[in-house]
UniProtKB/TrEMBL annotation:
Domain of life of the organism encoding this protein: Bacteria
Organism the protein comes from: Qipengyuania algicida
Annotated protein name in UniProt: Hotdog fold thioesterase
Keywords: Hydrolase
A GO MF label: acyl-CoA hydrolase activity
Length: 121
């Protein structure tokens, strides 16, 4: 996905990641394909929960909603994901994608189930 960790704010339970879309995901219109944008937003929301639980849990999405506010350019992008509310059975997450100038390009929300983080065996 071309993702790079930037920071995690524990108090806000907010993670910041940087993305760069591969050339194969740039549409003929010159913008990033919407499915990859959804993937970027899913990534920031999920990692916000993972870091907020000290990497013990990972969210299992029940629902994701995404709004594309502007065409997403192929250059470097900044994603911010945060935990809105975390319960024992359901968590609520949100994500935003910006260009380097700080323009909001896309946003998303997710309702998810907290689950043990896979070990990756």
């Amino acid at each position: 996905m071309g993702v790079e960790f930037e920071s995690f704010d524990r108090k806000r339970e907010e993670i910041t990641l940087r993305f760069h879309a591969p050339d194969s995901f740039i549409t003929p219109r010159g913008s990033v394909q919407g499915g990859l944008v959804a993937g970027f937003l899913d990534e920031v929301m999920g990692w916000a929960h993972v870091w907020a639980t000290d990497q013990v849990e990972a969210p299992l999405n029940l629902e994701i909603s995404m709004s594309l506010l502007k065409p997403v350019p192929p250059g470097p992008l900044v994603g911010k994901g945060r935990v809105v509310r975390r319960g024992k059975r359901v968590i609520f997450l949100e994500g935003e994608l910006f260009d380097l100038a700080g323009t909001l390009l896309a946003r998303s929300t997710s309702t998810a189930i907290p689950t043990p983080r896979p070990t990756g065996k």
